[in-house]
Amino acid sequence: MGTEPRSHAHYRRSLGTVALTAVGLGSIIGSGWLFGAERAAALAGPAALLSWVIGAVVALTIALTYTELGAMFPKGGGMVRYGQYSHGSLAGYLAAWANWIAIVSVIPGEATASIQYMSSWDFAWCEGLYDGKELTGTGLALSSVLLVFYFFLNWFAITLFAKTNTAITVFKVVVPVLTAGALMLAHFDTGNVSGQGGFAPNGWSAMFSAVAVAGIVWAFNGFQSPLNMAGEARDPGRSMPKAVIGSILIALVIYLALQVAFLMAVPAADLADGGWAGLGFDSPLADLSMAWGLNWLAMLLYADAFISPSGTGMIYAATTSRMIQGVQENGHLPGVFGKVDPKTGVPRPALLLNLVIAFIFLAVFRGWGSIAEIVGVATVISYITGPVAVTSLRRLAPGMPRPVRLGAMPVIAPIAMIFGSLVMYWARWPLTGKVILIMAVGLPVWAWYELRKPWAQLRPHLLAGAWMVAYLLVMAVVSWAGGTEFGGRGYLAEGWDIVVVAVIALLFYWWGVRSAWRNPSLLEVEREAGVASGAAPEATGEGRETASAAR
């Protein structure tokens, strides 16, 4: 059966619903709440409130597709496996690569957020940590220390991680709620909404773009963490759906309260020159607290600027190591990265690899905003395989146990595909193209492992993954040709561009579902689960012969 059963036997199934919800909520509430309210307001003005709601709806819709998959396959690093099970190596690898890029880059992003807030401390040496756009050399050095700290906490045991994270999550929830309430009581100027160009001063397109590039997708992306730690869940069928959905809804309430507080607390003088777009706080919520004499709150925020991002960074250090172990078991990394320490239940080689990659991201993307943009688009690219995979596997593997099975999934899945495609388009050209290019950078790794295989064995994987390659290319072209309000050349009229993206999403959803096949990874996981083949293998182009030969 390969290495997978042995490695997963070392995982400790010790996480219950509360612990998994803490993992999800702790991932969601990181640095996004420290900076997201200001960045969203700068882009969309008061319409940022709707941006948060749209972001939550998108995350929730897509999360529903993944909860069924996560409960079906309760394995560590779950998010990097589902595309492999439904479509084979090419689509599976692209989905895993996008997901890993989106998640591993969060870790240096959280460290950057902590140091950026630290630059507002009233000490001369702190002022030299951040130059207004990116971290300085000293700031990078301190961020590196935080990265080592995150990984150090994950090195020893999952039980230490769970106990530490639950305590940190409680603090992370209390402080944002306290911040929102204190700022509303200190200053609540409704004129900030009616003035400065009204509710949507930069148009509705800015409200949509804020979802993708203001850190909102980043802020809700933590719903993946319980799924990636499914291998350590005691009762994944019951606990994971509650953890995923509950963490998103709790976070939405907190984010809306913070956005309202921020909008009403900004001093009129700061909006006099340039309106919302002219905002330029280094430590937004702490700066507002100081402006209204809430020095105690500012001190609390400075402390929480370490605790919240550090808690999230710690979680992502844990979940990305499980993802790397999953990629290795998919056959696209050396065997050493699939090893799990039998004493602690921690995949230590994968943990070390992610530390190295986090250092690289920190060196290249030195500011929270630039990392948040990359994370947002890469996350959406990784999202699109969920709706396709969940529908495909209902056809290909009807006999697999499904502790979670939503009757509305035939409607939810295509809607999730549309939402994900729209967010990618809203991210604006050329950012969309840049992140799609990053996706292409990972293909040589796939080629190293796959192109040495016989053509008869490789061909069905290529055919099954062609839809995803074509989807990324088409979305890049649509982004380039789209409306000028989204950075495009203006070849698509406003309003019609949204229709075009929705139609494209549905076409590729249909192609993706029809391309799925009973590939060796799916057959293997069925054997592990003791499930007999229960569906006629409608393999791409090859039918039963391909699936049989692939065994």
UniProtKB/TrEMBL annotation:
Position of the signal peptide: none
Membrane topology: Multi-pass membrane protein
Keyword terms of this UniProt record: Membrane, Transmembrane, Transmembrane helix
Chief location category: membrane
Region: Disordered, residue numbers: 530-551
Keyword NAD: no
Domain of life where this protein originates: Bacteria
Pfam families, A to Z: AA_permease_2
Keyword Transmembrane in record: yes
Cellular localization per UniProt: Membrane
Transmembrane segments: 15-35, 47-69, 90-109, 140-162, 169-188, 203-223, 244-269, 289-307, 351-368, 374-394, 406-425, 431-449, 461-483, 495-513
Protein name as catalogued: APC family permease
Native organism taxonomy: Bacteria, Bacillati, Actinomycetota, Actinomycetes, Kitasatosporales
